[in-house]
Design brief:
The complex is a heterodimer of chains A (469) and B (195). Chain A has 469 residues and is of the alpha/beta class. Helices cover 31% and strands 16% of the residues of chain A. In chain A, strands 5-4-3-6-7 form a five-stranded parallel β-sheet. Chain A has a five-stranded parallel β-sheet with strand order 17-16-15-18-19. A four-stranded parallel β-sheet of chain A has the order 11-10-9-12. The chains are: A alpha/beta (469), B alpha/beta (195). Iron/sulfur cluster binds next to loops of chain A.
Amino acid sequence: MRTSKTLFERIWESHLVAHPDGEPALLYVDLHLVHEVTSPQAFEGLRLASRRVRRPELTLATMDHNVPTTEGPVDDPLARQQLDALRDNCAAFGVPLFATGSGREGIVHVIGPELGLTQPGMTIVCGDSHTSTHGAFGALAFGIGTSEVEHVLATQTLPQSPPRTMRVVFEGDPPEGVSAKDLILAAIGEAGVAGGVGHVVEYAGRVIEQLSMENRMTICNMSIEWGARAGMVAPDDTTFAYLEGRAGAPRGRAWERALDEWRALPTDAGARFDQEVVVDVSALAPQVTWGTNPAMVAPLDGSVPDPADYDDPDQRAAVERALTYMGLDPGTPIGEISVDRVFIGSCTNSRIEDLRSAAAIIAGRRIHPRVRALVVPGSASVKRQAEEEGLDRIFAAAGFEWRRAGCSMCLGMNPDILQAGERCASTSNRNFEGRQGAGGRTHLVSPTVAAATALAGHFVHPQELEPVA
Amino acid sequence: MKRFEKVTARVAVLDRADVDTDQIIPKQFLKRIERTGYGEFLFFDWAKDPGFELHRPQFAGARILLTGRNFGCGSSREHAAWALQDAGYDAVIAPSFGDIFRTNSLKIGLLPVALPAAEIRVLMEVANDGGEMTIDLEALELIAPDRPRIPFQLDAFERERLLGGLDDIALTLRRDPEITAYEAAHPARVATISL
Ligand code: SF4
């Protein structure tokens, strides 16, 4: 019998409620996060079948996807209706809600960790594909659809067929100015947007061990962008230090017990994965996407590819279509592409460290006159902390708009959208056609590259900016 | 859930890889709180182009969609599966699917059929000439004109569930004693209510 186990296997096994012959496994869900967009039909389903929410105390709702990030009421009647529906549903079913304006709201994947609700060894689901973010704590966390949301509300469990496992080891020391966002974009560029399908991925290696929790979240967040079912990082002292003292984390004796349990979670030395991938990051440059999915990415010092260089006819056609949509000519140096908009935000890069790293670059400088730039903190709490540190004033002095928390221009369900043809450097996670507004052109980058690009008006490495006078 | 029976229908071809759920149904249509009525917004931005593949007359009334690899990647929005079903599709055939999209489709009775890419190439040519194909879920076979029957795979449990149109939640509630036992043995790890 094989005794060495992976982190994933441990969590899977400890959450098996039942595994009847010929049926999928039934997994218990420790935490269910809910937001306004993917939940109304699920609550309606419960109502129609006269079912209740089985464990409201393991459920938390927030408003993030379609909330406006400017002060004042919600003008859009449909958005208002959806927010009202969430409020009514939470009240009717007893689900705690962090509503807009409560001072506790934020992007669902930002508030779970900051409240200390996201903990090692847990199973966490949410009707949102970037639920993989929570895997940074050594949790098994994945996105689900609305039918599954209803299923979890009603039963606190999910039928699941076992995924395959993959380990991605980052090797080498990343050069100065290369961030977690660049690591994951480069890995996706290598593996392709379907490279992780069907797999739960564990990110490992010294590079990962040395990352802060916030950077680990950036990496796990983008797991879904190469199709992975979930992404995870083994919990360690960095994880425990982040969690200690947070409102939702265990205290006193319970904290000690939890630590013992968490320390036993990481993958054993001899454990086997279905796939192992090594990514060498020692020569990595900051990454910029040039196309219409996150795998269409190039180093900042590289250039836009030529469709003629692709042998596979499907790929060639996809690159051609992407370049047409993006309005880019083959061979254009990435550094010569100029932008109209800059967006710093989203569950990938809107936490306090992201805002600090961007603010450090723009301090004492002004954004390019053509550029309109937006910073949207990931949560009301991130916003407060940034304001205490004076980051809001640095952003405002540079010409950035400082907004309230929400998903905002990551998906443009609220009024923050690109106009057709506008080009945006964005710290979010998806550059799909129209993602930030119909006809809008999105280039994914790290917060520091976004900040430097806002100043220069074109993509630029922060180290290449003129020193502040 | 919609019960899946044998479907014989026209087949529409969307020869693109990595079609993401943002293309299937853009975000502005996710603000509705109903489960129906998304069909008219299917592929909204692409459909504005009069030359869009799915506008071809031979695809009118199609109930099967034949498309490229990694179909439905991206966001978890079940609205994508709802939109396809609402627009009249009963099945999507592709070399591979985004995981969440595939699960969402199975939950609502929209059948995802995975076939080898080479097989799909051939079928696309057949479908482009118009004509009907049959998907037989009972037999796990696809029948195309002038082609040998093509077997496909689906988990036995999912097949039964689709054939019977069985409600997933009701199935799980048969396990209520096990769930209750699990809860008794495993104290809650968090308490959102006390925050
Ligand atoms: S910030 Fe973007 S990716 Fe993250 S939850 Fe919101 S919409 Fe989804």
